[in-house]
Design brief:
It contains three helices and twelve strands. It is an alpha+beta fold. The strands form two sheets. Strands 1, 3, 6, 9, 10, 11 and 12 form a seven-stranded antiparallel sheet that branches. Strands 2, 4, 5, 7 and 8 form a five-stranded antiparallel sheet that branches. α1 (about 1-25) runs antiparallel to α2 and α1 (about 1-25) packs parallel to α3 (about 55-95). The longest helix is centred in the first third of the chain and has 40 residues, at about 55-95.
Length: about 230
């Protein structure tokens, strides 16, 4: 009777211990009640002639404490993320209908003969004038604008009056903008900044950052230079 009891009890003890430790390590959503059930089951199934080492229970208690701490931290981080997103969305919603200055390669001319306003961020070492080139959707040149480099650098404003090189008003629609500056030895590409109205805001699912949707396209809120 004794020879049959020991192997069975020993196997049960070993399997129970391994099972409980594995569960504690892999199931991060384990509750205190689940843990107590595991301990109770292990104590009931252990071989009375070869009881489990008390240090095993202490180790498991430490594991449970770590799991509980991780759950608490995860819950706090999730709550913080939700709070930040709510605040960010509230701030972004306040921009709807506002005019912002943001980087873009396209600009919308609302009416024939209307105006598109923007600015260029002066690159380091730029001299003389910077050039803004406007093309239509077919890639044909419409107009060019010379923008003087500010003495102290920074933003250089420009305005296009919606006419072509002959001074004729062009139709309303989307136009492509590009810009360049010279640093004395070579031309440097410059990203145009255009004034555009905010139509809506959304949360980018990949970055969790706020995107501003404008009539000229979508840009991250972090890239908006000015709000008017």
């Amino acid at each position: 009777m004794s020879s049959s009891t020991n192997p069975v009890g020993s196997s049960s003890n070993s399997n129970s211990s391994t099972s409980s430790q594995s569960a504690l390590q892999s199931a991060l959503n384990i509750t205190p009640a689940d843990f107590l059930q595991l301990i109770t089951t292990q104590m009931k199934d252990q071989n009375p002639l070869q009881p489990s080492d008390p240090t095993q229970f202490l180790t498991q208690l430490e594991q449970m404490s770590e799991v509980s701490s991780m759950q608490s931290m995860q819950s706090s981080l999730t709550s913080l993320q939700t709070s930040l997103q709510s605040t960010q969305m509230a701030n972004g919603t306040a921009l709807i209908g506002q005019t912002v200055l943001a980087p873009t390669s396209t600009a919308t001319l609302d009416t024939s003969g209307g105006t598109i306003n923007g600015a260029l961020q002066t690159p380091s070492g730029a001299t003389g004038n910077m050039t803004v080139t406007i093309k239509n959707s077919g890639g044909a040149l419409i107009d060019t604008i010379q923008v003087k480099v500010p003495a102290n650098g920074g933003l250089a404003n420009f305005s296009w009056n919606g006419t072509n090189t002959l001074g004729t008003a062009v139709p309303a629609g989307q136009y492509t903008l590009s810009a360049s500056a010279s640093n004395g030895s070579e031309n440097v590409s410059v990203t145009p900044l255009v004034q555009t109205k905010v139509q809506s805001v959304t949360v980018d699912s990949s970055t969790q950052g706020l995107d501003v949707n404008t009539e000229n396209g979508t840009v991250p809120l972090s890239s908006v230079v000015s709000v008017y």
